[in-house]
User: Fold these one by one.
Assistant:
Number 1:
Amino acid sequence: MSKIITIGVTDLSFHRVTASLISHVLTDMGFEAKRIYSPHQENFQKLKSGEVDILSSAWLPSSHGIYKADVEEVAPLLELGLHYSPYALWGVPDYVPEEAVSQVDDLLKLDVIERMNKDIQGINPGAGITRFSIEMMEQYHLSDAGYQFHIGTEEDCFTAYEHAVANNEWLVVPLWKPQFLHHKFTIREIIEPKALLGIVDRAVLLLRQDRAEKFTSDQLAQLDELRFSNEIIAELDYKVCREGQALDVVTRNWLDK
């Protein structure tokens, strides 16, 4: 009878892609991989309570470091693998001239204010990019210039960008890598001098140390050797989210190749 490994998955598309890859690897090891999908903070709470054995993927140290520290108050964790190197960004479509908007302060220029869509559509409140963006709105006094940051779903964010590009509108998108929009669009990152967006993180698998006994040392080493990339995750994410291909089929095909 196969052992069950329960994976906590942050319920965003690129996290689902990575967790699918991990699930296939665990299945190939002989485990039954069960996935539980939750928002950011709830995902870590389930790791803390022991409802899940492992979490895919934690962004450390910037985005999810505070959540990891909270879990480790009761349960020491092992970091395994390097799934990709994520980071948060604010970007604009490549047709917005760089001489007009190259850094966040440029959003306050009068000619840019007149041209820019001032609705900045974010995602859920627990995401690092959301926390960072709210701080940026305050630190750069963007609200005073008429900008508004909106919390919403990831699809709210992505479709707002696609709709704006279809209409050749100027807008700012609070985003990150890896994300499927980068596979189709050239999104130019704008400079953020105050370093409020964090640093380049490590996306890793977090395993409760008290569940490590479920694995052999060779299996732990195999999980620790897993390496994907921002570009690979973005491409697979695009195949699922915009081409409508089945998640587990897309990831299985990639692993088999």
Note: The two ends are 29 Å apart (CA to CA).
Number 2:
Amino acid sequence: MASKKIRRHELILELVRERGGVSVGSLSEMLGVSMQTIRRDVDVLCDGKTLRRAHGRIELTAGHINTPFDQRAGTNLMGKRAIASVVASQIPNGATLFMSIGSTPLTVARALRYHKELTVITNNLSVAMALSEELSNRIILPGGELRLPDRDFVGEEVVSFFGRYRAEFAVFGTAGVAEDGRLLEFHEAEVRASEAMRLNAQRSILVIDGSKFGRLAPAAGAMISDVSEVICDVRPDPIFDPVVESVADRISFVGRTE
């Protein structure tokens, strides 16, 4: 099988695992190939054990679905909590901050539960709910359609939403980090939303666990060196040493190493 086709199949599997289900049209747009090509890929991938077709979508089978976002949120809890604790210690009461979609930013939000008078601008409904118990907080959400099961808002409306505000901090994750240090997402709109947060904040904080280094995703965004600070749990594979060195004075590894 050609290397391009193999990589495309890997991306399709990653997208479906990430979101639980994706339409053929969305896959065609995100991967930059025809719908006919995607349908041929689906013929190969839908073996009935892990993936299946359903109403123009490719989905996880019943035995694998189990709310993918909740699965992600429950993985590497110790690493994510270590990251969240460090970030929360840097954000004072009364701060204004952007917070992105993703399970690690959600863990940060949970670590901020005792902070007061925060202004939180987010497209992550779970983040909003986690911080809504403190009545002194102000929480601002975009309009539009809520994507399930991730419980977030995505699309062009979200990009313009973040562009209308300014914040002291932007706390955001990424789908993957390429070998050249490029931040990757599954959709171009997610790239632009992260960029809007980063550019409109005084300080941008990328929160990722070590599994994101080398993880594939089709939409390329900023370089990791464009970020003010990177908080990660563990150091990645040595192949990423040049990437780490590019942010040597701005990256922290906060997880346990034993």
Note: DSSP finds ten helices and 15 strands in the chain.
